[in-house]
From TrEMBL:
GO cellular component, one term: plasma membrane
GO terms of molecular function: ATP binding; phosphoprotein phosphatase activity; phosphorelay sensor kinase activity
Tree of life domain: Bacteria
Full-sequence portion shown in this chain: 117 to 380 of 380
Protein EC: 2.7.13.3
Stretches assigned to the Histidine kinase domain: 42-262
Catalysis: reaction(s): ATP + protein L-histidine = ADP + protein N-phospho-L-histidine
Protein name: histidine kinase
Organism: Paenibacillus piri
One example of a Gene Ontology biological process annotation: cellular response to phosphate starvation
Residues of the HAMP domain: 1-34
Amino acid sequence: GDLNVKVPVDTKDEYGKVAQTFNDMTFRLREAEKARRRLVADVAHELRTPLSIMQLKLENAQQTGQYVPPEMLLRLHDEVIRLGLLVEDLHVLSLAEAGRLPLDCKPLDLSARLEQVVDDVRMEAEENGLEMRFYSNTKPVTVMADARRITQVFINLLTNAIRYTPRGGKITVEIEDRVIDRNALFACVSVIDTGIGIPAEELPHLFDRFYRVEEARSRHTGGTGLGLSIAHHFVRAHGGFIRVVSEPDQGTRFTVYLPLGNDI
Ligand code: ADP
């Protein structure tokens, strides 16, 4: 339908109010429609290239009737798995963007959860020549949260820290209880790396879907460009937010703020 309608009523009476409400609604619908189109375009763009490469390889194998080496099948299979994960990520991301991500919130000991997550990625960090540390000033730190979604947030931040930090670097995870920000109380988790950093001009786009800093892109690091969008929207769904401080060639600090609910 045509969303470019606007009721030209400009009075202060009931008609004016109804007209204003109607115009606000069509404006919001237009914005939602724009967002939906962007999403569809992004998805098409992300899927097109890998799908056509797979199609070519399969058709080629079929037409030449040549023996297909198992490594090629393995690579194709990996690629199919990767695309499946991408579609799954896009699905939860679009739910979260629309504010419709189902959350199963329960009291969660952040400190214990983080310790576990850090242990889970420690191997990968060490294989990449990175030192991994975990600091907690208190425990337990209890927040109302969906353990699965929050775990995903920390995994995304930690995977990035590993990916964008050269060998010999250090990754530090810190948890702080009862941080006050704008008159509200938060539990804060920071993931700090000594990696390549992010130029200041890139920071405003960092949480955009499929956004990748040029240098990282050229490194072919195998990410999807959705990790930070997902982290951002999952944290928002919990009423929190993420801050980032970064210095090129020095490192990056992401801090997740999760509300503690009770007033100061
Ligand atoms: P990707 O799958 O590309 O890692 P993300 O959404 O997780 O996608 O991150 C977006 C971009 O932000 C990355 O491509 C990278 O350029 C930059 N980035 C994210 N985390 C870090 C970090 N810890 N250090 C440096 N750059 C980072």
